[in-house]
Automatic annotation (TrEMBL):
Note describing how the cofactor binds: Binds 1 divalent cation per subunit. The enzyme is active with manganese, cobalt or cadmium ions.
Protein's recorded name: Phospho-2-dehydro-3-deoxyheptonate aldolase
Residues making up the signal peptide according to the UniProt record: none
Residues reported to bind Mn(2+): 71, 354, 396, 426
EC number: 2.5.1.54
GO molecular function terms noted in the UniProt entry: 3-deoxy-7-phosphoheptulonate synthase activity
Alphabetically ordered keywords of this record: Cadmium, Cobalt, Manganese, Transferase
Cofactor(s), names only, from the UniProt record: Mn(2+); Co(2+); Cd(2+)
PANTHER family assigned to the protein according to its UniProt record, in alphabetical order: PHOSPHO-2-DEHYDRO-3-DEOXYHEPTONATE ALDOLASE, PHOSPHO-2-DEHYDRO-3-DEOXYHEPTONATE ALDOLASE 1, 2
Any Gene Ontology biological process: aromatic amino acid family biosynthetic process
Organism: Arenimonas maotaiensis
Enzymatic reactions: D-erythrose 4-phosphate + phosphoenolpyruvate + H2O = 7-phospho-2-dehydro-3-deoxy-D-arabino-heptonate + phosphate
Amino acid sequence: MKPNQDWQPAGWRNHTALQQPVYPDAAALAAVQGELARLPPLVTSAEILALKQHIARAQEGRSFLLQGGDCAESFSDCESGLISNRLKILLQMSLVLVHGLRKPVVRVGRFAGQYAKPRSADLETKDGTTLPSYRGDFINAPEFTEAARVPDPRRMVKGHARSAMTMNFVRALIDGGFADLHHPEYWDLGWVSQSPQSAQYRKLVQSVSDAIRFMETISGEPAHNVNRTEFYTSHEALLLPYEEALTRRVPRQDGWFNLSTHYPWIGMRTAQLDGAHVEYFRGIANPVGIKISASVTDNQIKRLCETLNPDNEPGRLTLIHRLGADKVGAELPRLVRAVRSIGARVLWVCDPMHGNTESTSNGFKTRRFDNIKAELETSFDVHAAEGSHLGGVHLELTGENVTECLGGARDLSEADLERAYRSTVDPRLNYEQSLEIAMSIVHKHQSLG
């Protein structure tokens, strides 16, 4: 990526910035930004550039991107059990995909920085009291009190520390052999034996283990690169003062890098062409994503491609379509054709979660597994029909035994939601639903030949 000579990390301030909190003390905010700018980065430029190469291969159909994690992290979730379970489900899903797709999988966790969330309204009213909306732990607290809802810039420092601890633990697990394909049975969660998918998964694990032992027996050498795996992080780069403070130049590299994460993305609510987020993203050297909804016009998607990747660099730009099961068949073909018409290199990724959100009769925000699966399968069909290919999936999921999405192998009902609904923002796939999605991706891919 050629450096933008006219670009600076703070240049977004000259544009309209949506979904940003109003901090009551500007001097305190500036002091926190200065402190963040002096703290060590969370990722390195070498890791970022390596991921960009992996994404370039996924654009060509030579690998598949698996991106998943919590809808919004909370500071209280920074604990070893939750982190390791989150990593386990992504590793197990990737094992299913590697085995079934017969290609490498790029593993990206939606964590270690997913502490800010866009909201549909700035204010929230309960029992006649109106307060600022909860915007994620980076910004304020979920308790419905005046003190908790005041935006506090010091929360960014706390979020940086939680992100660093999360990433340090993930790296330690992987370097210590947690992801060793010789022993995928180590990834089992405590309740996997109860899952309807258990027998199929264990059969797959045995098949992978047998294949590795066979290769090593024939070659007389250890199988290459099966004792550890590369793992990357991502988050929606929503809170621009935080992202600006972690954006730096690095020795022996051109341009500016966002060192808060490997793979930031722009959400649908902040994807305006003349907005602050697009202005910020156009100048960083990271691979970047942008969420695409049915409201995006052909001209808008073309201009976004040209703005965010003017040099048409491989691995630079990911388009994450989130259209809904009822719209994907009608809307996705035109979007694919619009991008093809300008020859833009992009990685197409399906987010089958956000377009399928609904509220139940008992007041829970949920998603139906059948709709999630249907949007994903239709996306594969559309890309195949258009001469394109779907190169990845973007999911909100957890390694915990939650009941937040309806359906799946256990056919969770509305009554089940009350049993283990723990998300503070959006509903997530639980462990077995996530594994079932991975298996459905394999089945769909194999049916397309």
